[in-house]
Amino acid sequence: MDAFLTAALYQFVDLPDFVALREPLQRCCDAHAVKGTLLLAREGVNGTIAGPEAGVRAVLAHLRAIPGLAQLPHKESWSSKPPFLRMKVRLKKEIVTLRVPELDPNKTVGQYVKPQDWNALLADPEVVLIDTRNDYEVKIGTFKGAINPDIKTFTELPAWIDAQPALQGAKKPKVAMFCTGGIRCEKSTALMKMKGFDEVYHLEGGILKYLEEVPPQDSTWEGECFVFDERVSVGHGLVPGPYELCRSCRWPLGPQDKASPHYVQGVSCPHCHGQRSEEEKTRLAERQRQVELAQARGERHVGARLARPQADGVAQPLDSNGRDTVRVVEGGGFGG
């Protein structure tokens, strides 16, 4: 039976007293056995929490009692195992990092387009379609005809936009943008509006909502959608895909990657081969051995955190090694 409720949430709203909100929110989570990560900033709240249903709903009620958050939306999923090991409420400069201080998604964003209307928008030949996600996400799937900025972090997007001749000049094109769950597009479309683009659109609910609502036969999506949880990727109907994570560099690996001679489970893959010292490889191999021993005993192995691809948004649950992956990412179930 799936006993653990996961709630993924975000909302851009002016929270001038966000620092004072941290401790009461942490206490509420602790009191109700809720784990995960929540980010608080002047611009709003973002995160993913999990625990017993009554506890999660108590935390959501606490959040919605905060002025400005009465209509805080969230997405739910269930699991048979606890997705997180600990609870962290963190204070941040931004709930999704772009590093454009003058940007305010609370004031202006692009026009939302519902999943069922997305294909019609993309059929317009004048629309420039931009995937706002990071390189390792785009690698395994994107919309047909989308431009890949080939960025390693969301913070690289503004510079990429400024370097594109097709996006410069007095006459600005129509721009459509998308991300995993919506939060990055709140900022990326606000950025485009700030740069003088009049017609800017983004996919409401992100790729996840599109894959949930649009039938495969009508879809313009190609490949899988990377998600920041134990599923790694999903396809239409949000059915888990064939990918798993490299436990060294955290890149999504498909069957072809795992067939590479550079793939050593828990140690290396074609993307990080040659980037680890012999000492690091030895440590990774020992960790993998401990993981396998723990699995044989029916236990969960808690290992050290390692470097991984950077992203922005909601918090990631435990990986398959049982680690509390406190990386703040976008797309886990809502943001993204």
Would you write up a description of this structure?
With 336 residues, the protein is an alpha/beta fold. Helix content is 26%, strand content 20%. The chain contains nine helices and 15 strands. The chain has helices at residues 18-31, 53-64, 115-122, 135-138, 157-162, 183-194, 206-213, 255-258, 278-296, and strands at residues 4-12, 35-41, 44-51, 74-79, 87-91, 111-113, 127-131, 141-143, 174-178, 200-203, 221-223, 225-226, 233-234, 244-245, 252-253. Strand 14 and strand 15 form a beta hairpin. It is globular and about 65 Å long.
Biggest beta sheet attributes? 5 strands, mixed
Our count of helices gives 9
Mean of all residue-level pLDDT scores: 87
Task: Tell me roughly what share of residues is in helical segments.
Answer: 25-40%
Amino-to-carboxy terminus distance = 28 Å
Order of helices and strands: EHEEHEEEHEHEHEHEHEEEEEHH
Number of strands: 15
Proportion in β-strands: 15-25%
What class, by secondary structure content? Answer: alpha/beta
Q: What best-fitting shape do the alpha-carbon axes yield? A: globular
Low-confidence regions? 303-335
Across the major sheet, the strand order is 4-1-3-2-5
CA radius of gyration is 20 Å
